[in-house]
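Bench notes, bay 3.
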Amino acid sequence: MTLDEIRPYVVILNEGSGFFFQPMDINATYILTAKHVIQNAGNAIHLLKRFTESVGGLISEDLEYTMQPGINYFEHPERDVAILKIDRLQGLSQVIRTDDVTVDRESYILAGYPQMRRDIENDPNYHNAYRTDEGITIQGPRNNSLREARIPDRPGLDEVRGHSGGGLGKFDDGFFLLAGIQSQMIGAMDEQLGKIEFSPMSSFDSLVALYPEQLTSLDPAHLGCFSFIQDATFLLRVNLFNEENIAYTRNFLKAETEKIINSGTAPHHIRRYFNKRLLLDQANPNVLNGRNIWIAWLEFLTIVNIMEYTDVEEADLKQLFNSFRLLYSDTKDDWTVEVQKMIQADYHGLPSGGVVVIGTNSSPLDGLYEIEAKRIPNLLRVTNKKLMQTDNGINFPFDHYRFVHLDSFKKKCITDKIAEYSNIFDEQELIIKLQGEYEQYITRNQN
């Protein structure tokens, strides 16, 4: 995602701004804004405009909206936040929330339609009214659940007015991480320049909690159901000449993901149960809101379904986590660079002899789909032992667990043996073949 691609997410709302957010509700799109943007307009919506991309550039569009408090408009009684609820808009899926502002404080962006950019006479459609302020730094907490941020070059009130309701966030791995919505300038005039206050996403969570029947969690739809990422599973990429040899197996595995989807198990259930324990790098919780970790989980659960001869359901998750543990990293580097994090990951509840499956954003280099204990440098065995998270009796994870990459179940068990699959066109025969390959791979050479 680029700076230019943020604009379709930002709306002109009265004398301020608003920001599109796709919640878990697949039938609705939310516009997050500052409550005072509505109140200062006589508790009404006089102007609601967005820009959409077309071949010739951006075009303005007036959004039809009749304000109905408690039905499609919701405001917090104490905090400066409000949500406008409209019918679901297509796309707009590259924004996810971040709550990590206490640790990750640098390089934020504020996007909105400040007043000084609005020129009704010469620019009636507001094409030139949009502005992004870059290089913003998150500061400390303020009263009324607000947080402080600092804009470089110390802009004054006249330059920021109209940004209220605009989105504050940053880029990460193709997404815009929305940290909150701009509220106002700092009140003390002698230090006002460049200092703003914004409402973090937790303030909108508080608003959602007041309307549990009308509003849903401010999480992306793919956290609500695995069906949103089904098409991204089991790609099984091969060359053109092998395509017809793998097509049936690929289509079968994609169809098998339906069993997980229909079981009712969803990403938000798994996240609720295990949270940061799912991650190799627990200092980066934003990964839990992305897509790639849940693509890995859908593949993993489907593989386990086939291996175990039974359907894996929500009630089985804890037991599964204590026998096969999937840990995920969003690194695009080779998985071997994550060895230190593997040593320090959370293994509580996983008995000796268990299998640790590592998922990453890229396939292993040099054909190394398993990391054996003998490969671990002695230096790593003695450094930071106090940071290890293991149960009594387990001194070093690589001495007690088998570490395999998630892609090994596709590479070692399928594509490396593609000739053995080329003439299988019967579902039951394929199930037996996959079960045998998975079982043989998992049980061999246990540490």
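Next record in the batch:
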Amino acid sequence: MKTKHLPYYLLSNTSLFALLGCSSDAQNQVTRGPLSIGYTLERDYSLNLYKSNSNGKLIGTHTTSYFKITYQGKRVGLTTTEGKKAQIWEARFLSDAPRTAMLATSNSIYLITDDNGSAGAGQALVTTVTAAGGMLSSYKWLDSDHGQPGREQTRTPMDNSGSSRFLSGGRYLLVNDRSVLDVHKLTNHPFDLISEAVIQQSDGFVRVSGAQLVSFSPGQAQLVFLGSRYNQQRNRTDYALLAVDFVKNEVYAVPFRPSATHFIWAEDATSDWLATYFDWTTDRKGKEVLRVHPYTQHPPWHGRWAQNPGDDQPIRYELKPVLPGMFDHFMRWAKNQYPAIEPKVDRSEGMISATFTLNGAVFNLYVRNDYKSLTLESTNQVLLKTIGDQFDGELRNGRFQDGFGEMDPD
């Protein structure tokens, strides 16, 4: 694919602005059965006079791939919710479907299948999987990672021509966090988490915005999301897991105490965490039911590695929820492990801090009452990781547990 570049001395003001607009190049097709996918690359041109990220270029370009879908050589018409022609900026065949099928992505997402008609007499069947989803679409296989959800894939209007024209990885596909597509049966199951009726059904709990999908049930019938509601009487946020039967479009809430389940941050809610603190059971009708595991003695508290958003940010070791006594636990342990440490300790109202040097590296330790947190930082990331992992190993073996408090006291 070649684009002609005109020398600047040939561009008058008139011809320059004539360039601003778009151009396109048609590309080859990919065919499976009676369905075909082709695409056109469309370039939009704009002046960069006031753009700080233009890298000195006067004219900026943005390339978008628009896809054309045909059935037996005839274009498949797709329309928006307003009845306009849909611009498709991604199209992929479903490799594991029982017959030729694909997903086409626009503001809405469409399932296009072959109706299995006799030769020359068939037609394309179009189902809207999700409608009016905006300019960002997401896909996530629910069962691709040993029966649990895999990584999310996203698509926006850009040059998607280099991506695969095939989608595979599992049987159940979560689309835009609003519908589940059973690829083996080519059935679509939209579900509701935002209507007033559903919120009442889930005892006032709503899905935590931006929180990831937590888990997929063993029977592959329910999705689990993290939910929350504000408790006015106790002036705090209560949490629950929201289990969604996506075939029946039914939701129920499983409230839990953060301290009893070692839940501190929203990202703690993973499939492994659920498997540790919750159980899947069945009722008399054989329906899967999620419940909190009835521990008599909970697993020991331990720490985590945290990192600020952005590239090349240093990591830090964190513990939560801690009591002030955790400071002394850590320093006694550290001095026993590394006798050369001579900490400079500052005890002020609401916070205890210490600075010490080890192998030429400076370490800072903070324990804050308001956050119930312990934080260890250093510019020597290798040594920091060693010390943090060593102390965390002690915690996982059950030591220093009296240094932890409650996140949600009654």
